[in-house]
Amino acid sequence: FMQTVMFILVIASLVQLVEIILKKVSKSLYNSLGIFLPLITTNCAILGVALISIQEQYDLLTSVVFAFFSAMGFILAILMFAGIRVKLEEADVPKAFKNVPIGFISAAILSLAFMGFSGLVK
């Protein structure tokens, strides 16, 4: 289990590091890559699903079902974050919590809500 988490953390960290370096060293290359660098981090979720399927030794049908519902969960989380972000843009948030800090707080609260689902299915 932790192996998958570590793979994802290493990949996400390296992508963020490359993004920071590109922004400072080659602004034109950074601008040309645009949205593709953050999308590499998103691919960590796909890697995680593949690694879990391999570790659990799922057959083809189980792997397809697992991948489908993992994708549905990811879509649900992204839609919830988008909705929260829209509401936060209109909210009266203190200056110290604008943008990234309130985003992290929202992500933490949302992750706590999703942790409530962990005991429902065994």
Count of spatially separate domains: 2
Secondary structure: helix percent: over 70%
Going by helix content, strand content and strand pairing, the class is: mainly alpha
Biggest beta sheet attributes: none
How large a portion of the residues is in β-strands, by DSSP E?
under 5%
**C-alpha Rg (nearest Å):** 17 Å
- In the predicted model, the low-confidence regions spanning at least 5 consecutive residues are none
* Structural shape: globular
Mean pLDDT: 83
Distance between the termini: 16 Å
Total helical elements = 5
Helix-strand sequence: HHHHH
Number of strands: 0
Secondary structure topology:
Layout: H1 2-25, H2 27-33, H3 36-55, H4 60-90, H5 100-115
Subcellular location: Endomembrane system
GO cellular component, one term: endomembrane system
Keywords: Membrane, Translocase, Transmembrane, Transmembrane helix, Transport
